[in-house]
Write a structure and sequence with these properties.
about 75% strand, two-stranded antiparallel ribbon, 10-stranded antiparallel sheet, 12 strands, globular, mainly beta
Length: about 170
């Protein structure tokens, strides 16, 4: 897969801490290889690798995903995204780790869980949703979101930043 890109930066852009891409027009090309196993299988594997030019330098992006399904009631996913950039202005790396676990107690009631950590912001986020389908197009959600920041404190490695709960109703008529 060949992906041509054109971008015009109206002002300098800091793509990572200390790595600034100067303003101006850029043309660059990326290439992508991708493998996805069938989504109806109990175990699904997704792999994609994108590489090529990136503004004035080079870029590599690897995505790995593994999904397990059990009888339509439980889905468990692991995802990893590794990004590497090498520009004349400097290098940058970012790693994002994701875990998703969904449990369906019935076709109409499910507990959906999503956790993500990225090593640039050093933040861990969690999203937990109870989803209840009253009838087609009509849902009630109870949602809990929380964010923590990783610190090198021996007592508490993750410090809470924000937590909130939401009650949501979606109706269609």
């Amino acid at each position: 897969n060949v992906i041509p890109n054109r971008d015009v930066l109206p002002y300098d852009f800091e793509v990572a801490e200390g790595v600034v891409i100067p303003a101006g027009p850029y043309n660059f090309t990326n290439y992508r290889f991708e493998f996805n196993s069938a989504s109806h299988r109990k175990v699904k594997l997704d792999i994609s690798y994108k590489f090529g030019e990136f503004y004035s330098g080079k870029y590599k992006d690897l995505n790995l995903g593994l999904e397990f399904k059990y009888k339509g009631y439980v889905t468990f996913q692991l995802n990893l995204n590794l990004v590497r950039g090498d520009l004349p202005q400097g290098k940058f790396d970012e790693n994002v780790y994701q875990v998703k676990a969904d449990f369906y107690f019935s076709p109409n009631l499910g507990l959906l869980n999503y956790i993500q950590y990225d090593d640039v912001s050093k933040q861990l986020g969690a999203n937990i949703r109870l989803k209840w389908r009253i009838s087609p197009g009509n849902y009630i959600y109870l949602v809990y979101n929380s964010t923590w920041e990783r610190r090198w404190d021996p007592i508490s490695r993750f410090v809470p930043l924000e937590s909130r709960g939401v009650f949501k109703i979606t109706l269609s008529w």
